[in-house]
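Progress report, Aim 2. The chain analyzed during this reporting quarter is listed below.
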Amino acid sequence: MKRTKEQWLALFAEQAQSGLTQTAFAKRQGIIPTYFNLRKRQLLAHQNDDTGFIELAPQSLPLGQRILLRKRDMELQLPAGTDALWLAALLRAL
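Predicted structure tokens for the chain:
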């Protein structure tokens, strides 16, 4: 039997209200427990996609602003236009 997304979500809600474990609930419904768990993870993960991340807007440094890196007794000043990949490689190396 092929179920719609809405039918699966209703089953997940019903299981939560039933007090039964996922395994017991799935067996009562005639669903293979591992498949019930798989569908729950798949569908609920898609529901939470919109809440997991926020959009960030890049901000530029004022003209002439330099990047200052300090580590222990070392200080390194870099121009504002320093390549991000190069800078990431440098920071990993430190």
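Residues 19 and 25 are 9 Å apart (CA to CA). Residues 33-47 form the longest helix (15 residues). These observations will guide the mutagenesis work planned for the next reporting period.
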